[in-house]
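Today's session is about reading a structure prediction critically. Students often jump straight to the picture, but the first step is always the sequence itself: look for stretches that repeat, for charged clusters, for runs of hydrophobic residues. Only then move on to the predicted structure, which in these notes is written as discrete structure tokens rather than atom positions. Here is the chain we will use throughout the hour.
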Amino acid sequence: FDAVKPKHVVALGEFVSRLLTGQKAPLAALRGTVHEYRGVPLVCTHHPDEIEKDAGGAKKRETWDDMKLLLKTMGRDVPGK
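Below is the predicted structure for this chain, in token form.
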């Protein structure tokens, strides 16, 4: 982590989200908030496998919301506000 020095981190899935936030909350509770990992902004979202398996598309929409949060955190423009 220190060698790469990321400016932002995205946790993909509940396991990694819990690990990096140090919380035992479900992913639904960890999403939508900017956390911090070693002083770096951290956004939690669904694992790509879960998005792919989601027939209704809800997780895809939620992941897009998480990516918009990441863009805001990065100071970038958010398409389709």
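Discussion point for the tutorial: The first strand starts at residue 9 and ends at 12.
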